[in-house]
Amino acid sequence: MSAVCQVLGTSPGFGRSISHSHVRTRRRFDPNIQHKRYWVPSLGRHVRLRVSAQGIRTIDRRGIDAVVARIIARGEKV
């Protein structure tokens, strides 16, 4: 499963780990993806979203109705 936030579109970042001996190896920085279930009054049902921790804060600020409307406008299935 992809590590992409449905609200913000946050995806993994890539970089390098540097060991004590200064050997560099490739690594991946995954966002903190959570599965959250929200009640959406405008749809009259629960919606299960894959959101990052920052996406949860965005939902708290803007409201679930506005966020779900934007996801649907993008053409994603909710």
Automatic annotation (TrEMBL):
GO biological process terms on file: translation
Source superkingdom: Bacteria
GO MF assignments: structural constituent of ribosome
Gene Ontology CC terms, in alphabetical order: ribonucleoprotein complex; ribosome
Sorted UniProt keywords: Ribonucleoprotein, Ribosomal protein
Pfam families attached to this UniProt entry: Ribosomal_L28
Matching HAMAP family: Ribosomal_bL28
Classification via NCBIfam families: L28
Family: Belongs to the bacterial ribosomal protein bL28 family.
UniProt-recorded name of the protein: Large ribosomal subunit protein bL28
